Amino acid sequence: MLDRVRRPWSDHSAERLLGAVACLLAVGIILMIVFIVRGAWPTFSHEGLSWLGSGGSPDSQLGAMAYTSSKPPPSAFVVHAWPLIYGTILTAGFAVLFALAISLAASIFIVDFAPPLVRRTMKPIIRLLAAVPGVLYGLVGILVLVPLINKYLVTESEQQSVANVIQLTGGGLGITIVLVTLMITPIMTALITDALESVPRAWREGAIALGLNPLRATLAVSLRAIRPAIIAATGLAAARAIGEAIVVSMVSGGNSFAPNPADGKIFFFEPVETLGSEIVRVAEDLGAPAVHSTLYAFAALLLFSSFALSLSAYLVKLPLRRYQVSS
Amino acid sequence: MRRPRGIFVPLLAVAALAGAAPAAADATTTLHLDGSTAAFPLLELLTAKYEAVEHHHVKFIVGQGGSSVGITDVANGTVNIGDAAAPPTSSNPAGLYFYPIARYFVDVVTNPANPISNLTTAQVQAIFERKVTNWSQVTGSSLSTTIDVESRTSVAGVLTTFASDFLLGKTSLVWPGATQWSSEALLQKSVEGDPNSIGFLSDYNAITKKLNDVAFNGVAGTVANVENGTYPAVADFYEVTKGPARGYSASFIGWIQSSKAAKKIIETGWLPLTSTKAVSG
């Protein structure tokens, strides 16, 4: 037996081992879905889909749930999660838009315009940034940025104008978007840079030879060729943005308010919570079965949103395959 | 030998890899604890000392998460002992035993830029229920800015204790627009960074140079005032076990409740208990 283990594995065994690991992964994902849906079931069975709607503050509703008994009646499961869903869409949506613009500009510069020395320095730096644990951004946010915003950007009259509804403490939608953007931009830039580099040089050089200036050539030829890669990178970044929880819970203002765009500049200082950050904040109440089930329902919604994101990224990519060089 | 081995061998390899780690552990016993963020600093000190006292035959892994997390985890059997900062409530799972280990008190805190020395019951209620919105409406403050109310998420043990003495026992009276932090440390950092803020913390986190501790109805939150019974907002930390404590958990809890070494540690930032009777929840 030992003798057999010591011999190098044939390709056949390697194939089986890899197959087994892949199967384990699939089984793990299925188990996770079953686990989450089972945990969320009481909320779905008592509330249907009405818990996705609006009405009142999720913080207060979850707070009331925490004091229901260990065998809660159906009435204990009432929650209206719309402010959290809206908060998730707002933060992730803005962050992905900003990150897309920044990473496109950065990758075009790095691949087609930067001098070789700059290119060689920038690429490892971006990969390093992509690996920074998100919670570091949260710490810098709560210890440095939030107090600065509170001191220099939020005025006393703005605070007073909304004092009966919410408080503007520096933490809120704006800083959350900035930090989530910071967290997803490096990975998007790294993916798009790789894709741009894989475009055959002759394509772009041919376009320049036909009379396009270098920037037009990049936009018209290279960017068109890597559209599937851009969509894949955006999908990945969006999935990370909607699920980001710890950082958001640290800098988002600590209140499940739904920011109102009609408030103008204050909009970006208003507190907000996402589905993920609410799970982090309210995890302390998990002892109450009603809270338990509600948080699992949030988790199920996040899970299905990320499935939907990757599925729609795949569907959008399909018709673009014709000119693709990589994805 | 070319006998097809199917999927069994690769699976065995994976299982062997997974099994290797636990097999390496030796004869020491490991106790898992988690729960109250307020009790965490105390438990860190106590467990470190106990490991030394027991010549490292017992090891501890101490997590946080909040009182309710500790209660849920101990009821599920995920941890050996849960840490709680408030007594049992009706929503707790049945069959848990709460062993009081130390007494703490809750202080109202403000930023040092707003050095209020005293607040009355009525003033604390007005601020936390948002009946006043500006520091100029609070006697004793020289600021004229909007008040930032910093609170905790709904069932934090420290919030329950704060409400029981400052807010007529109703945590629901706290203004829903207040910032609600999930841990003591986050609330502490937030008040340190915001001159207009007011919050509440357990004494260990409240008594620092970076925060101004406010006296309540003329009585300062000090160990002496808690001992002579004049300061309200006092509560106990509990070690929670599923059923009566047994084995290593029982000896650890017994050591906290009776040994001189543990009492010495408790006295560095908290108050030792006079009665240590367990409450079953």
Which features characterize this protein?
heterodimer, A: 327 residues, mainly alpha, MetI-like fold, 14 helices, globular, B: 281 residues, alpha/beta, D-Maltodextrin-Binding Protein, domain 2, 2 domains, 11-stranded mixed beta sheet, 10 helices, 34% helix, disordered N terminus
Q: How would you summarize this macromolecular structure in one to three sentences?
A:
The complex is a heterodimer of chains A (327) and B (281). By secondary structure, chain A is mostly helical.
What does this molecule look like?
- The complex is a heterodimer of chains A (327) and B (281).
- By secondary structure, chain A is an all-alpha fold.
- Chain A has one domain: MetI-like (MetI-like fold, Orthogonal Bundle).
- Chain A is 70% helix and 0% strand.
- The longest helix of chain B has 16 residues, at 8-23.
- In chain B, α9 (247-258) packs across α10.
- Chain B has 10 helices and 11 strands.
- In chain B, strands 1, 2, 3, 4, 5, 6, 7, 8, 9, 10 and 11 form an 11-stranded mixed β-sheet that branches.
- Chains A and B meet through α2, α3, α6, α7 and α13 of A and α1, α3, β7 and α6 of B.
Instruction: Summarize the main sheet of chain B.
Output: 11 strands, mixed
- CATH architecture term of the largest domain in chain B: 3-Layer(aba) Sandwich
Q: What is the gyration radius of chain B calculated from CA atoms?
A: 23 Å
The fourth-level CATH homologous superfamily of the largest domain in chain B is Periplasmic binding protein-like II
Give the helix tally of chain B.
10
| Strand elements of chain A, count | 0
